[in-house]
Design goal:
This protein is 72% helix and 0% strand. It is mainly α. It holds the Pfam family GST_C_2.
């Protein structure tokens, strides 16, 4: 099998892209899009409204749950309380629309750099024409997350960034890329495991309907 490693002589610009991709706060971007839905136009499965509401409900109660665990398990209280405080501070930052807007602007700038690079290099993939590397997996995965969050209209569709749009379409056609994406079932399983019991009945009903709908469309 062909290695996904970047070649030793990879362009320093591409190495910079990989470093940026590795450091992007994808979780914050995801939760931020739930908290500020005016920035998204058409969220896709699995991040439809009922699932987003369930994830947000879990986020809202996480600090309190960590503090209750700290009271229940004194030996771990210091660590749990620090995690609770960190979560609350992070939640406050994510809830700021100003912060979320700045995050989207920074992402805009990064994707503009990628668009210019793809146009100037005339490459199908960031490290060449022969095949994808780990940096392509990172970029395509980011684009997929933006797509399911409903942010593609802002970042590349309708000719906004044509090279990036073509790049994402090529990536989606590759079975190797599809294999690294979490399945719809696995995402719902993760949501379920991390959902407080009081919300599970509603989510179970929603998940059943959504999965049935998805299977019928295959």
């Amino acid at each position: 099998a062909k290695s996904l490693r970047m070649p030793n002589g990879a362009d320093p610009v591409v190495r910079g892209f990989r470093q940026t991709l590795d450091n992007l706060p994808i979780g914050i971007l995801t939760i931020g899009s739930f908290l500020h839905p005016n920035y998204t136009k058409s969220p896709k499965f699995p991040f439809v409204l009922p699932v987003r509401q369930t994830i947000l409900a879990r986020e809202e109660t996480l600090g309190d749950r960590l503090r209750s665990y700290a009271a229940e398990y004194p030996a771990f209280a210091e660590v749990l309380l620090k995690k609770a405080d960190f979560h609350d501070r992070k939640r406050g930052i994510i809830a700021s629309e100003e912060y979320f807007g700045k995050l989207l602007s920074a992402l805009d700038e990064f994707l503009s750099d990628v668009e210019r690079y793809l146009e100037a290099s005339e490459r199908e993939w960031l490290c060449g024409m022969e095949g994808i590397t780990i940096v392509d997996i990172g970029l395509a995965t980011l684009l997929n997350r933006l797509y399911v969050l409903g942010l593609e209209d802002r970042f590349w569709s309708d000719g906004r960034r044509p090279r990036l749009e073509q790049y994402y379409a090529r990536a989606c056609q590759r079975s190797s890329f599809q294999c690294v994406l979490p399945s719809k079932v696995s995402i719902l399983r993760t949501v379920w495991v991390n959902t407080p019991p009081m919300y599970k009945a509603g989510l179970a009903a929603v998940s059943s309907v959504l999965l049935s709908s998805t299977l019928l469309k295959r």
